[in-house]
Amino acid sequence: MQELIIIAAAGENNALGLNNDLPWHLPDDFKRFKALTSGHKIIMGRKTLESFPRALPNREHIVVTRDTSYTPKFPCTVTHSINKAIELVGDNERAFIIGGGEIYKQSMHIATSIELTRIHSSFEADTFFPEIDRSQWELIKEEYHPKDDAHKFDFTYQTFKRK
User: How wide is the angle at C-alpha 71 spanned by C-alphas 114 and 54, nearest 5°?
Assistant: First the structure.
């Protein structure tokens, strides 16, 4: 079965980012992101791709952009809709939808699960994660991580499955 997993970190106010950057630094969340997405396809919008200094190792990058003449800064597959990007995911494959805000919004009705890191603070942002409709999504797992020397904020890993 095809798995399409939205993976994101968002503040209590659903903040995702500001000026194409993250408003927090959570090393354990980066490690979890790497562990979950390594070896899989990652689907993202153009701005998310451009926020990376280089391609993420051991992942196949698929970028969605309306710009038909777009040239990415490193080799990846360019598509022009979320549906075209998902067509590149095989029937028995797992792919991760990694942002940004518009791509998340377009994916909410087709994703099979959500891996959300909920950061227990609110942030100034220009990009936001869509509301999770609890009539469509069930929270099946939570793991709390208190703030510490390496993490300025408390956060909780949350796993949602489509009902």
Answer: 60
pTM: 0.97
Residue 14: pLDDT band by 50, 70, 90 thresholds?
very high
Choose among 31, 5, 14: nearest CA to 150: 31
The parent domain of residue 158 ranges over 3-162
List, for residues 18-61, the tens digit of each pLDDT value: 999 999 999 999 999 999 999 999 999 999 999 999 999 999 99
CATH number at residue 73: 3.40.430.10
Query: Other CB atoms closer than 10 Å to residue 113's CB: what's the count?
Result: 18
In angstroms, what is the C-alpha Rg of the chain?
15
* Number of folded domains that form the chain: 1
